[in-house]
């Protein structure tokens, strides 16, 4: 049982604030992904949980025990590093056994666990090799096996797949998900890759400028971004935003079209829609086509709506060319609204 | 027509390439000769009998006579000077690594105020000419009773070798990713355990090389040795003192005894010295 609770954690590097008072709870056996652009503080947060960095303020609890004053070895964690950190002077076997030997486990138990985790990661035939004789993907497997062999309560992963090539990344991603689900550990996984985050996570914590903006199930984060940043960061292509002016009876005017919207004490708010929630229809938003990119199943159309960049993912049957004007109607229940100043969602219930 | 021109051009460029290669090879030969010829002459003369050394024209094949070397080694005081040299160099080596390696580790792993200044200061110590320091040092050593002792001389040699030890070990430690240590910490190691289980095995060959380097610096040093010791002379100081009044063949023998160990040591650790100076050795 290892629930992780981060309470009011802040980190300062000189004048730079890497983390502003972060609160996050990760349930036992949950797969939590910290997602954000580089420099958003996600790795710092992970390193604070690991004990490789001390928080300037706040508390870290793992499994009901306060750990922020403990060194990494007393926290019941294992970590997988971005550059693998496989010890070059030890064989694969000794790498995986390293932590077990530190625990002074009996030899038979060490052998059993090393063999089992090596089999699990499909590196059973490499046990006698040194890291210099392994490919990147194999090193990554060793690093994961070394962490799993510890049978830790918590596994922390810092962009473990980012050094692999695209195809290998896809393969390892699926494999990691299976292995970690089976191992029943609590996992915190740092990445800047939204696809990785969506596909692996039970919950995604989206981070921006040292704050957690939203921490919810992937589909929630995708459908109902808590802030404009989340909508523009997640999704490829990202969400479209257009200014909306206050109309009569609580309605809002977007590019000449009237929509029902939230009640807000503002003259202008932001209208948002995902590119795939648009379809050509009379009474839609008038869009002038700039670029048409056929992608096979769909066609990505980049348009101009009243001077704003606007993208739509449309059915590939549609025939459009540069300069055409097309009316794009949003699916009504997929429209989102954001406050232009706080950038927060105007109907988010959290 | 065009074919002919093309062939001519080809011939000319091949010609130029050939000449360039000639210059290249010649340069290498000259550079090698510059270093090797004196060593070769030293070796020949050290291994020849006194008659052969003084004979003219010289033979380019050594006589393989060990008389000169044997006589030199049996010369009063040589054995003692040799022992002193090894002792001083050994203490220098231990002090340089003992003080230099922790400093190198700190420089590579921690950010502290004045780190860059410290690195420059370490190098700046080499900018002080030793002759300038020798007299005040001698006076100070006499006052503290360190004069004419192996430890006193080793301290001076340590100041000469330490900057190299610090900078070399710094680059050694900097070459070890900090994640390796961090991984060890998360796998149950204390800081100290992580150091000797992970970092030390990886840097040990380099540390050994920089130790040998410190040894050779002390072994070759003559100025401070000549000024600061009287009775307990090291081999270099001893030779400096006695060689002017020795016959030719003894000079060569003494030179060979000095040069050969240094050469062997440097040859043994050449790979690491190349790595230290940032020259790729792979």
TrEMBL record, chain A:
Superkingdom to which the source organism belongs: Bacteria
Family per similarity comment: Belongs to the ABC transporter superfamily.
One Pfam family named in its UniProt record: TOBE_2
Residue span, ABC transporter domain: 4-234
GO MF annotation, one: ATP binding
Protein name stated in the entry: ABC transporter ATP-binding protein
The organism's taxonomic lineage, starting at the top: Bacteria, Pseudomonadati, Pseudomonadota, Alphaproteobacteria, Hyphomicrobiales
Record carries keyword Transport: yes
Protein keywords: ATP-binding, Nucleotide-binding, Transport
Record's keyword annotation contains Transport: yes
InterPro entries (alphabetical): AAA+_ATPase, ABC_transporter-like_ATP-bd, ABC_transporter-like_CS, ABC_transpr_MalK-like, ABC_transpr_MalK/UgpC-like, Mo/tungstate-bd_C_term_dom, NA-bd_OB-fold, P-loop_NTPase
Signal peptide span: none
Automatic annotation (TrEMBL), chain B:
PANTHER family per UniProt: INNER MEMBRANE ABC TRANSPORTER PERMEASE PROTEIN YCJP, MALTOSE TRANSPORT SYSTEM PERMEASE-RELATED
Source organism superkingdom: Bacteria
Protein name: Carbohydrate ABC transporter permease
Membrane-related topology note: Multi-pass membrane protein
Family, similarity comment: Belongs to the binding-protein-dependent transport system permease family.
Main subcellular location of this protein, as a coarse class: membrane
Keywords carried by this UniProt record: Cell membrane, Membrane, Transmembrane, Transmembrane helix, Transport
Record-annotated membrane-spanning stretches: 22-43, 81-108, 120-142, 154-178, 198-219, 252-273
Pfam families, per the entry: BPD_transp_1
